[in-house]
Design brief:
This is LysR substrate-binding domain-containing protein. The protein is of the alpha/beta class. It has ten helices and eleven strands. The strands form three sheets. Strands 3, 4, 5, 6, 9, 10 and 11 form a seven-stranded mixed sheet that branches. A two-stranded antiparallel sheet has the order 1-2. Strands 7-8 form a two-stranded parallel ribbon.
C-alpha cells in the first residue's frame, strides 16, 4: 500500500488546489476546470478537512495558499504532471513498450531518425517518442527515459554509451573561400559560432597551433539556422562532417581549409543511474551497440 487513504486527496481536489495556486482565484480555476466556483471551494474545503491543515488564506481579491500549502502544491503539481504523461504514454502505446528520448536537433534528425526504421523493424513492440533538448537536464523533472548527449562525460548522475565520435570541418560558401590552405586566413574571416559550443573555434585553431584570442562573430543556437547562413556567404562555420556531406558533394559549400578533420567531442546515449532500466531502453541500447559498433 502506497499510503493510508486519508493522506491521499482526490485528483479533483489536487487539480483545484494547483489551479488556484497558479491562477490566484477560485473563479479562474473554475473556468479552467469547467466547474463552478462553489465546486472549487468545496474541493479545497474537503482537502483541508481530510488533511487537517489550513491550505488557503482568503481575502476580498485573491486566494493565497499558506506557506506550507505552497510547498505541498509543488510536489502535487509534479505528481499530476507525471501521471498525465504516463496516461499519454499508455494511450499512445496500450501494449506497453514506450521509449521517450531527448535528442539534439541536428544529430537526432539527420543521423538518428533515418536509422530508426531499422530499430522499428527489429522491435515493433517499442514506440519511440522524440523531443529536443539542447543542454543536460535533471531526469527527475523531465519525462525522458534517456537522452542524446554531445561532448564529454560531464552529465552528472547518468550512465553512458558512446555512439560515435564527431568530426568537424571549417566550411563556407564557394565565393568566400580563399586560394590558400593556410588556416591563418580564417583568423581574419567572419566566423559563425554555436552558443552551446562557445570555445569550438578556439579549440580548432589550437589544434593548428594558432592562438585565437577574442574571436567574434554571429551566434546561432542550432546548426539548422547556421547552415543557410554559411551557404549565403555570411561566414565560416565549424560543422559536423555527417551534416554537410551532401552540401559538399553538391558544391553548395566548400571546405575552407584543407586538412584533417578535428574532433570536438563524441555523441553518447545517457540514462539516469538511479532508475531501473526498462525493457524498451535495454532494447534500444543493445540495438545501438550492435548496429553502430
Amino acid at each position: 500500500m502506497i499510503a493510508p487513504r486519508r493522506f491521499l486527496p482526490s485528483i479533483s481536489s489536487l487539480l483545484a488546489l494547483e489551479a488556484v495556486d497558479r491562477l490566484g482565484s477560485a473563479s479562474a480555476a473554475a473556468e479552467e476546470l469547467a466547474l463552478t466556483q462553489s465546486a472549487i471551494s468545496r474541493q479545497l474545503k474537503t482537502m483541508e478537512e481530510q488533511l487537517g491543515v489550513e491550505l488557503v488564506q482568503r481575502d476580498r481579491v485573491r486566494l493565497h495558499l499558506t506557506p506550507a500549502a505552497q510547498e505541498y502544491v509543488q510536489t502535487a503539481r509534479a505528481a499530476l504532471t507525471q501521471l498525465a504523461q504516463a496516461s499519454l504514454k499508455l494511450k499512445a502505446n496500450p501494449t506497453g513498450g514506450t521509449l521517450s528520448l531527448s535528442i539534439l536537433p541536428a544529430f537526432g534528425m539527420h543521423w538518428l531518425a533515418p536509422r530508426l526504421q531499422d530499430f522499428a523493424r527489429r522491435h515493433p513492440e517499442v514506440s519511440v517518442n522524440l523531443s529536443t533538448r539542447l543542454k543536460p537536464f535533471d531526469f527527475a523533472s523531465e519525462p525522458f527515459d534517456a537522452a542524446i548527449h554531445f561532448g564529454r562525460r560531464d552529465w552528472a548522475g547518468v550512465d553512458y554509451l558512446k555512439i560515435m565520435r564527431e568530426e568537424v570541418l571549417p566550411v563556407c560558401a564557394p565565393a568566400l573561400r580563399q586560394a590558400t590552405n593556410d588556416p591563418g586566413w580564417l583568423l581574419r574571416a567572419p566566423l559563425l559560432h554555436l552558443d552551446t559550443r562557445p570555445d569550438a573555434w578556439e579549440r580548432w585553431f589550437a589544434a593548428h597551433d594558432l592562438a585565437a584570442p577574442g574571436l567574434r562573430g554571429m551566434l546561432f543556437d542550432q546548426f539548422s539556422t547556421m547552415i543557410p547562413a554559411v551557404a549565403n556567404g555570411l561566414g565560416v562555420a565549424l560543422l559536423p562532417s555527417y551534416l554537410v556531406a551532401d552540401d559538399l558533394t553538391k558544391g553548395r559549400l566548400v571546405v575552407a581549409c584543407d586538412g584533417p578533420a578535428i574532433s570536438l567531442g563524441s555523441y553518447y546515449l545517457v540514462w539516469p543511474q538511479n532508475r531501473a532500466t526498462a525493457p524498451p531502453l535495454a532494447s534500444f541500447r543493445t540495438w545501438l551497440q550492435e548496429a553502430f559498433a
